[in-house]
Amino acid sequence: MSEEANLIDEIIQFIEKERVIYGDFTIPDFSHRTNKFNQTETRQMSEKLQERPQLTLEKCKSLEELKALCIETDELKTDLEDTKLVFGGGNPDADLILVGEAPGAEEDKTGRPFVGRAGKLLDKILEAADFSRDEIYITNILKHRPPKNRNPLPEERERSLPYLLRQIDLINPKIILSLGKVSAETLLNKKASLTSMRGTFHPFHEKYELLATYHPAALLRNPNWKRPTWEDFKMLRKRYDEVTE
């Protein structure tokens, strides 16, 4: 590939990243220029792009910057091709974050977390507990859909966790609710049954509290778990009111 073609690719990737961070913008029309960039112009533009600091996890100071980094990060992808990043959504200043396991088919289509059948059930539970999506934040351990909606592999969870932890720190909530066994095990860094992890608030990274409960998708398969899940949400509501009053 020529130097000019490489430069064009770099410019396109750079513009897409800037749009994510700063919103859409227009680009001046250079179509009246009949000549291609000469070598000097090409070199100067390439040097400017290289001088620009690269985003890293530590340098991400906002959710917008972190999302831009996640878009570019191949290690967040699974072995299912052409999936869409499902970064998360809700209140960026939320006191409560819900963390699921991985996006499903509907989430992959829309780029939004919890919009399928499990998401609709979650909305009903949240409403019953007097929460709205506008006041909380929802995301997943994985940012891309795994094949056939399988559970995230240990190596996928390990690669994705630093990005999730940075996302949590940028939001700086008071409480984290993990949805499902995979989410709880990943965040608490322990191998245990969900039954043993439920029913108590765990200290998390010294400044957060974490409560574990069943994933809404599990409730669709086993309605008997709806009652204990509701008990968890009542506990969550009580603690949330205490720490936010």
| Rg, Å, rounded | 21 Å
The portion of residues forming beta strands comes to: 5-15%
Number of domains: 2
Main sheet summary: 6 strands, mixed
Strand neighbour order, sheet with most strands: 1-3-2-4-6-5
DSSP summary, beta strand count: 6
CATH architecture of the largest domain: 3-Layer(aba) Sandwich
Order of helical and strand elements:
HHHEEHHEHEHHEEHH
Name of the level-1 CATH class of the largest domain: Alpha Beta
CATH topology of the largest domain: the name is: Uracil-DNA Glycosylase, subunit E
Low-confidence stretches: none
Based on helices, strands and strand pairing, what is the structural class? alpha/beta
Overall helicity: 40-55%
Gap between N and C termini: 60 Å
CATH homologous superfamily name of the largest domain?
Uracil-DNA glycosylase-like domain
Q: What's the tally of helices?
A: 10
| Arithmetic mean pLDDT | 88
What oligomerization state is this entry in? single chain
Shape: globular
Describe this structure in words.
The chain is an alpha/beta fold. It has two domains: 3-51, no CATH class; 83-244, 3-Layer(aba) Sandwich (Uracil-DNA Glycosylase, subunit E). Helix content is 47%, strand content 10%. The chain contains ten helices and six strands. The protein has helices spanning 3-22, 39-51, 63-72, 105-110, 117-128, 154-171, 181-188, 194-197, 216-221, 226-244, and strands spanning 89-90, 96-100, 137-140, 175-179, 202-204, 208-213. The protein has a six-stranded mixed β-sheet with strand order 1-3-2-4-6-5, with helices on both faces. β5 and β6 form a beta hairpin. α1 packs across α2 and α1 (3-22) packs antiparallel against α3. The protein is globular, with a radius of gyration of 21 Å.
